[in-house]
Amino acid sequence: MTTDNSQILQDLIKTLADGHTHATQALAQRTGLLPAAIPEALTRLTQQSGLAVIHAASGYRLKRPLYLLEKSRILAAIPPPQRDLIHTCTLLQHTDSTNRQARQHPPPPEQAAIWLTEYQTAGRGRRGRHWVGSFARQLLLSLAYTYQLPLHQLSGLSIATGAVLAECLTRQGTPGLSLKWPNDLHWRGQKIAGILLEAQHNTETEACVVIGIGINVYTDPTQQNQTDQPSTSLEALGILSDRNHLAGQLIQALLTLCTTYPDTGLTPYLDIWQHYDPWCGQEVLFSGPQETLQGRYAGLDDSGHLLLDQNGTRHTCHTGTLRLL
């Protein structure tokens, strides 16, 4: 799609976001198109974003109004000490993956690059799972931070990120959250957010870490029967969250984590994790790339690895998934 076409679709979305009916002539004036070209442009809009556009006698409207992200409002919600660390902040209407964008554009050392999008076509969870969502219903962001440290000194950062995310959403008024090892945030067994952390060596003494987070903010009917586990949203819990404010608060918390982690390590975050972890002491099934183990979940070790007791033997599990029995 050309840049001109992309701008046309952006103008259409911004105009239709209020959920009101807009006349064909008004949409043509906003986009610079001829009135006869508006139906084709709206078809492209539906194909690209999945948004449902309703055609009435008086014009066109969205099936549901949108509350769009605004970069200026997001940055305004971040206080200067953390905001000064941001090298770039990019807001896209759509992309394949914010994590991919962040990996391909690492920031300079000890600075951050932020990527946000309203919709992504190839979002991923751990182990290649697809992140399902629709336009402007989630908060989808990736934060890349470049450390002047070797990668091995950053182990456990994913667990710390989970603790920070749980605390951030709790401060927004979300009750009863729980963390599921290694990277999901749940409410009564329903997934409300997920984390995908990816890291790469730049040099032997420099590494870039990309923290990708997806939060279900508004209830998304298209997610029904599309995921391998039940899900919920902040809206479904009665939390009327402004995505711009939430994005700013979350970015502030992640930047604080990134800058302090080399000094603190994982230790202070393990207590936070334990507070949100209701699984400790439960019988679980661990499924890893090489083995499947059943036993009693005994919490996390000092590096954030899962501990599982089986017939008097304690196993340390590094990569895999967990299921309650």
Structure report:
The protein has three domains: 3-62, Arc Repressor Mutant, subunit A (Orthogonal Bundle); 71-274, 2-Layer Sandwich (BirA Bifunctional Protein, domain 2), CATH 3.30.930.10; 279-324, SH3 type barrels, CATH 2.30.30.100. It contains nine helices and 14 strands. It has helices at residues 3-16, 24-31, 38-49, 71-76, 80-83, 98-104, 157-171, 243-264, 267-275, and strands at residues 53-56, 59-62, 86-92, 112-117, 138-147, 177-180, 184-187, 190-203, 206-216, 283-287, 292-300, 306-310, 313-317, 321-324. A hairpin with a 5-residue loop joins strand 11 (292-300) and strand 12 (306-310). The longest helix is centred in the last third of the chain and has 22 residues, at 243-264. It is globular, with a radius of gyration of 21 Å.
CATH topology of the largest domain: BirA Bifunctional Protein, domain 2
Quick check: average pLDDT? 92
Number of domains: 3
| Total count of helical runs of at least 4 residues | 9
What spatial form do the alpha-carbon principal axes imply?
Answer: globular
Helical content band = 25-40%
Integer-rounded radius of gyration: 21 Å
Uncertain segments: none
Given this structure, which CATH class of the largest domain is correct? Alpha Beta
- The SSE string, one letter per element, is HHHEEHHEHEEHEEEEHHEEEEE
Largest sheet: 7 strands, mixed
